[in-house]
């Protein structure tokens, strides 16, 4: 079985993960699902792999032996806007996932996810759906509220530009945070079930930092780089 | 205030003295009293010398001493100064007749007649024409004022050679009439002497009285603001009386006069009694009830004078008032002497010396009245008394100002101390806050430890054990997966969800779905009300952990033991008697299990432990767990409390 994109090409994935067993596990799951997988253990290897050509999907861990995955995500987003970027996380913690989103990631994958779930997540991503967890939705909504109530002390964690989110998008995030399914959210809000994943992808795009200076600023803010 | 402080300082030595034998006490008194008395003796000498200096000198070359006096129809020659013998002769006053020589060639300026001292009033005529009538100037007739008079003689009246001068002396007693030497000469020669006397006996008393009235106002205000200290009020009253006496114009017989004015002039006994009262209070003693007797003469003079009218007040004043003044002065001297012996402070010394001066002046005046000394009827006690009152008032004001300074510095100390106390309080508050934070952190750590120990710790140990025995595959995988799930649960529960349990359940739903997906079990999630569960502002992370673990346990049971195909989670809110109440149900379609005691032996132990854990956790956060199981499935109902408990009371 071979996974193919809308154009019928084989979907290529660049997997950047320094822990060998984890790398094997993910690679196995993806290869079994029919993807073409290249793997890299360091930031340097990932860069040379990228130099060879753009993958359809980039899956990257954040903490790498020779640098931070954030840099790789930012570079990839700038050089290959069409590449889907997903961050691999051990715990799916909001801070690392949100940091990745602000530089261009549109999804995340848990390292211990079941093989079928790994394949499904990548397929959904390529189909234009971004995965989001209840805790990440909660995190984003909390930032929106923190920005609205300027008198209240902002919650700890990375700053997030949520000003561009629409009320509908915030409603969707609330639904996810409270554990409602996409179908339930769609029926509550009077949307079609198919539009909810698109909204989520939009939310991710809106959270992404666009200009270079903004990126540097955000990175400094988040303590990812030091000037 | 300072009185109290002074009292304290005097008490201490007194107590010490009373314990000590009598002889040292006597010695102490003597050692203090003798120098003081010597000092007073010196002051007496100084006062007498001062009075001698006060005696003004008059231009003797223009003195007229040889007069003939006609009284009661009898004429005889007299030499001025002269006392009349009669006491009441207003209708036919004694008439002094003398001559002086005027030479027009000598007269560069006009001539005047100058009378340095007389009592009570005079009418001066030159060659039969009146040039001076002192009755028109009421103040000139007061015996205590020593007022001189001068009058210019119109040059048309003066004849070359001998001129006649007649002086009519009006006396309204009770003192004898007195006429000092009369001076007639060029105005330029007489006026300096007149002005010296005016300065000494008219201007100076007015200055003193003005000063006294200012002090009276100050002291009255002090007393009004500090009623607890009558000492100011008493002195203010004394000063007011003195000022009134100084400024009320005396009535001149036989003119119809206000009786009140006449009586006020005789207020000296009241004034002196007030001064004694002031002295007693000032030195911190109680004013004895019998002290009221001191006011009796003053009141008698006042009342009798009002009823009887003149000349009664004057007579009473002479026989009753003046001795009272003397008595008061002696009492005051006694009081100050005791104060000096006991306190040895500047105030008592000053007042004591002032009293001695007034006393000397009073005795001098008495001797003058009794004609035992001849000082031309110059009375000095009123003058010295005014000066003393001014000194006392100034001293009191100074003492008051010093007390204010003490209060200021005390206030300054208080401010410093309050600031220090504030600093200490702040520091202790910070310490307390730190301790509370540390305690909360320790509590949180204990709970987290217990949860990690129950879950993650056990699972990791199990992984270690399995891998050591060479196990592979599913068992290790399950244990590791459970460990990760637990880690996520603990991390997730630490997040601030603002009391909305739905947010925690949302994450749990994701984890549970992921857990069930490989087993092909569907998780049916039903939220009966839009809001889900009521908000619990008191919800803490450890409550969340307990609830989520109960739900985990229910799902794990359904998967592992009941072989369910379908699990439904229902979240609803029902209205209890005290408000909305959350209810979470987990229902499966498995084959159920028999409650402890009836089940199969192999499974009962583990299930029973799991159920006991669930009940414990529910009890810890005040929830009610209801569990029903039969062949058609199991239903776990968790009824949330109205309010989650603060402390982990049921922990164990």
Automatic annotation (TrEMBL), chain A:
Listed SUPFAM superfamilies: C-terminal effector domain of the bipartite response regulators, CheY-like
Response regulatory domain: residues covered: 12-126
InterPro entries: CheY-like_superfamily (IPR011006), Sig_transdc_resp-reg_C-effctor (IPR016032), Sig_transdc_resp-reg_receiver (IPR001789), Tscrpt_reg_LuxR_C (IPR000792), WalR-like (IPR039420), WH-like_DNA-bd_sf (IPR036388)
The keyword Acyltransferase is annotated on this UniProt entry: no
Keyword terms, alphabetized: DNA-binding, Phosphoprotein, Transcription, Transcription regulation
Sequence positions bearing 4-aspartylphosphate: 61
Highest taxon of source: Bacteria
Gene3D superfamilies: 3.40.50.2300, Winged helix-like DNA-binding domain superfamily/Winged helix DNA-binding domain (1.10.10.10)
Pfam family, one: GerE
Chain ranges of the HTH luxR-type domain: 158-223
Protein name per the record: Response regulator transcription factor
Protein species of origin: Bradyrhizobium symbiodeficiens
